[in-house]
Design brief:
Structural class: alpha/beta
Number of strands: 9
Oligomer: single chain
Distance between the termini: 25 Å
Helix content: 40-55%
Number of helices: 8
Largest sheet: 5 strands, parallel
Low-confidence stretches: none
Shape: globular
Strand content: 15-25%
Length: 212
């Protein structure tokens, strides 16, 4: 029986490099799927339905919320963004791992509705390095930088809600750590209960537990 895929939820403060790490991971693992969000904003030039986003009108999106069809959602500048359950579950049931790169609040919503995910928090080596990275972008004022650092400190306070922490000192190292986490998760007994049948005359792990 094919093992169900893993939902790998990756978060971290702005400047931690989570987007870069996810991109590098996916470049190494083409079999892993990046989750596609639904949104009510209009498509930008070059964006494609079902590739960049699932584009929905407001009424459709709000019905998805009411019907519990989203793992998480949020509203920014009058537009909704969210993660459709159907797409994620479809991929997982096919045995494909799915990466969901998302902010902390979204990740906590996902944890409530899908606690069996693997939750990974990406951190920079230090707050000093985080500040250096944000300043290095050269796109934000000092006031915005200070607000980002303040938000980062608050976000790090949610670290204990995650299963793993990865320090992004170097992208290749961070990707290797995530690969190790995924390998370890796939070897967990709870994800391999059907293997027990090969050593117990066809009785599953759950059957044995019930019999006892």
């Amino acid at each position: 029986m094919k093992q169900q895929g893993l939902l790998i939820v990756i978060s971290g403060p702005s400047g931690a490099g989570k987007g870069t790490v996810c991109k590098a991971f996916l470049e190494r693992h083409h079999e892993v799927m990046l989750s596609i969000s639904a949104t009510t904003r209009l498509p930008r030039k070059g964006e494609k339905e079902g590739v960049n986003y699932f584009f929905k009108d407001h009424d459709t999106f709000e019905n998805m919320i009411k019907n519990g069809e989203l793992l998480e959602y949020a509203k920014f500048v009058d537009n909704y963004y969210g993660t459709p359950k159907h797409f994620v579950y479809e991929q997982l049931n096919m045995g494909r791992d799915v990466i969901l790169e998302i902010d902390i609040q979204g990740a906590l919503q996902v944890k409530e509705s899908f606690g069996d995910g693997v939750f990974i928090f990406i951190l920079p080596p230090s707050m000093e390095e985080l500040k250096r990275r944000i300043i290095g972008r050269g796109t934000e004022t000092l006031d915005v930088i200070e607000k980002r650092l303040e938000n980062a400190s608050k976000e790090i306070g949610f670290l204990d809600k995650y299963d793993y922490v990865v320090i992004n000192d170097e992208v290749g190292n961070a990707v290797s750590y995530i690969e190790s986490i995924v390998t370890a998760e796939k070897c967990k007994v709870k994800r391999n209960k059907d293997i027990y049948k090969n050593f117990s005359g066809g009785m599953s792990y759950d059957d044995r537990s019930t019999a006892q």
